[in-house]
Amino acid sequence: MITMFFFIANQIIVVLDDLITVSVSIPSDIEIGSYDVHVDDLVLENGFVVDVIDAIADNYLADAVSIYPNPASDNVVVSAPIGSQVVITDIGGRRLSEFKVSGKTIDIDVSSYNSGLYLVQITHNGVAFSGKLIKN
Description:
Blueprint: E1 9-16, E2 19-24, E3 33-39, E4 42-50, H1 53-64, E5 66-68, E6 75-79, E7 85-90, E8 95-100, E9 105-109, E10 116-124, E11 127-135
Antiparallel strand pairs: 1-2, 3-4, 5-6, 6-9, 7-8, 7-10, 10-11
């Protein structure tokens, strides 16, 4: 089975009669691999290679998330992309709280948690990030 992707060129530059530079945006869910490029009757085998999408996505979420104050006593603020799923677990993996981010931040009451270390797991568009929370 052949899977085809269609992209719109953002910029096309003709450098010489035999050299063309094309800039396109590709979807973030495209699989790592080598892809042929077809433009009308022209075929460029292995015309582009996708090899860093996972690293870009991981860095994006790590940069977009913050958990503060940390250590916390009563409340902790989690800043994450809208639509993110936030799950707080104890060190044994037991789910204590679960939230969906609907604004820029969510304020979480941790006053009933025992003092110790907790994991804050944030998932957004299939990308996961785990952070630590220390409860005083």
